Structure formats: structure tokens, C-alpha cells
User: What shape does this take?
Amino acid sequence: MAPRDRLAQLGSITASLMVAWAMFQRSFLHGLPNFVLEYHQILPSFIYPYIEIRFNEHTDHLVLRSEAYSAIDNYLSSINSFMHSKGLKANIFQNSLSLSLSMDDGEEIADQFEGVKIWWASGKIRISSAPISLSFRPGSEEKRYYKLTFHKRHRDLILGPYLNGVRKEGKAIKMRNRSRKLYSNAGPYWSHVVFEHPATFQTIAMNPKKKKEIIDDLITFSKAEDFYERVGRAWKRGYLLYGPPGTGKSTMIAAMADLLGYDIYDLELTAVKDNTELRNLLIQTSSKSIIVIEDIDCSLDLTGQRRKKNEKVEAKKDSISRRKLGKEEMDTRAASQVTLSGLLNFIDGIWSACGGERLIVFTTNYVENLDPALIRKGHNLFPKISVLLEETNMTPADVADHLMAKVVLGDATFSLQSLIHGLKTAKEEARLRAEKEARKIQQLVEE
Assistant: This one.
């Protein structure tokens, strides 16, 4: 082919390509920008179908450490994958009993939950120093974080059960690793020291069968959060330790705290001004704790109007109390306005639901001197249950469900109280339904 013919053919091909490009632009590229704008957030998910969540170590002011970050830090230090991490950081925090290990910056470990794989990574970024009013450290700041990565199809599983489990396990690890505290009250405030009592259930000399019964009861209580929530009861439990001086009541409390890893709040009622101050003290107590009132028969006159009116008995009790307590303690006792009802409102009333996983322990040398309201048994609840059963239409299956608490905790009183609560609720619901039906009938009559 001659050069002139080749040039003509090339020009024809070029012209055809230009026409084709123009048609392509008119038919497709003209609408491409709108397509990109509309679907720019969807397209990346097809390329990278993972969700990333970052948990910062501190709040915006870089002062308070995030509770979520602390829980994750504790949780990650316990999972098996953590041991394969090449870079680790070691710290000993205040009130901690052991060395704390965590991932070094830039490390990543894998975790699994219900067959789903999850990745955790640690990192940090440098930011400019916050204003002096918001930060106590001049210069640049290091902002540490944990990053959680998982596939988007598992969003509900990870954001729900998995992270809830991480939070609970992280808090539990923190409680196990911390040093236990012994609190005492001075007026309306608590102060504490590190509790290092050597007593354990292994060192206590007592009937082996009774010891096992107590240990099983305590462990069952500590693991019964879901049960208490299901039956609508406050997560608490009461113990009364009684016997002559020197029989090991205080040692038993120390062993209970050692077994469960609980703090102890030693409540001195004579130092409490009134019921309001008592309530404020008690709502300050933390979960996983034992609230102790020792020698409750001598702490205060909690019987109020319940006391017998026999003057000879009253005079004898008063004489014994004065000899035991002395003039100074009697003056303090008289100054306190704490009442039995104020104490019972926290133990069994509406304030008992303020906080969870707490044991309340009374001790006394003379159990016969206590008001019956403090040591009531469950069997005297049968007459009340009998009346409620006649007034309420509750199926045998529902009755059995409430009584199942006896199987779980081995506590007949708790079971009977649960049944009474359920009967009262059913009775009230039936009353409301009857009133609603009566109003409907009345409206039809009036029409």
C-alpha cells in the first residue's frame, strides 16, 4: 500500500474513534458523576466489607480514663491470643495485686466469639497539647486507643453480646486483681485501708459439712446475677452470725471476703446521725462488697415501738447495756436518730435495689435480744401466701416458677418472698383489668 493510501486509512480510523468517543461520552460518562455522588459510600463496602471501631483511652479532656478502654485493656490481657503478641507493656497500678501486661503500640491480636473472628489492634496518635485549663501536661500529647475490626455481617453479634461480654469480663478481671479494702465510716463519709486479713475458709476450724454449705451458697450467690434480674429481686443476701465472744464471727467475715474477693464496709451505726445520713452512706457502697454491722444488739436501740412494754425487762436490759457500753458510748447511742425502719428500708425496702452483688452481715453475741424483724424466717409467710392464693388466679406452673429459687439458692425464705411478690403483682394486674372492663361496660350503658 502506498504511503498516501496509508495516511488516508489512518485518518479514517482516527475519525471513527473520535466519533465513537463522542458517542460514549454522551451516552455514559455524562451520567457517571451523578452515579459516583449517589453511591460513593456504598462502593467501598464492596471492596472493604469490615467495620472498624476505635476506643480512646481518655475522654475529650485527656484527664479521665475511659471505662470502656480499661475494661478492654483488662480483657485483652487475659485472652489466649494475647500470649502470641510479640510486643508487650508491663505496669503495676495502684491498689493492684499483680503485674499488668498489655499490648504494645502497633500490635494486633485475634479473638473469636461464637465462631466469628475479631481483630484488636493498639495504637497511638500525637496531638497538640490541650489548653492549660484542660490538661496538666504541657507539650504534645499521646492519645492511645484500641481498634476493633470485624466483618459487617456480624455487626449485631459484636456490638451486642460480644462487647457486653468484654465489658463484664474486663470488670471482673479488675476486681480479681485489685487489693481488697476495709472501709469504716466517720460521720457521713467512708475512709479505707488495704485489707490483708489472713483468714480463709481453709484456715477456719468448723464442721466440714456446714463449711461446704456456706461456701456453695456464697459462690452460687456471686454467679446469680441473671437469676435475680429474671425474678425482679435486688441482688443482695443477708447473713446473721451469732455466738459468744471469740467464736470466730469476724474471722468468718474475713474468709467470706477472701473467697469472693469483696471489699468490706464496717458500718458503725453509733457514728451515724440519722436515717438520711445512713441512706447516703449505704448508697455509696460499691457492688461486690460485704456490709457489716457488728454487735447489732449493742449498736443502737433499733426496736422502737416493737419493744415489749414490760418495765422490769426494760430496766434489766437498760442496766446491762449501760454496764457494757459505758457512759460515753451511751451518750453517742442516744444522740443517733437511726431507727429500725430506716435500716430495714435499705435491707429489704426500695433502697435495697441501689447497687448489686452485696452481702449484708449482722453479728451479735445475744441473738435472743434482736428484734424479730431482723431475723425473721420464711415459714411465717405461709398464712400470707394462703390468703393471696385465694385472692389471685395464678397457675401452678407460675407458682412453681417462683419457688424454683429454692433450687437455685437453697433459700426457702427467698423463694417464698418471690412467690408473694408474684402473687401481689398478679393480683394488681387482675384488679386493673377488672376496672378497665367495668369502665367499658359503663360506657356502653351510658351510650
About this structure: The chain has 16 helices and twelve strands. The longest strand covers residues 116-127. Confidence is low (pLDDT under 50) at residues 132-140, 303-313. Residues 344 and 373 are 8 Å apart (CA to CA).
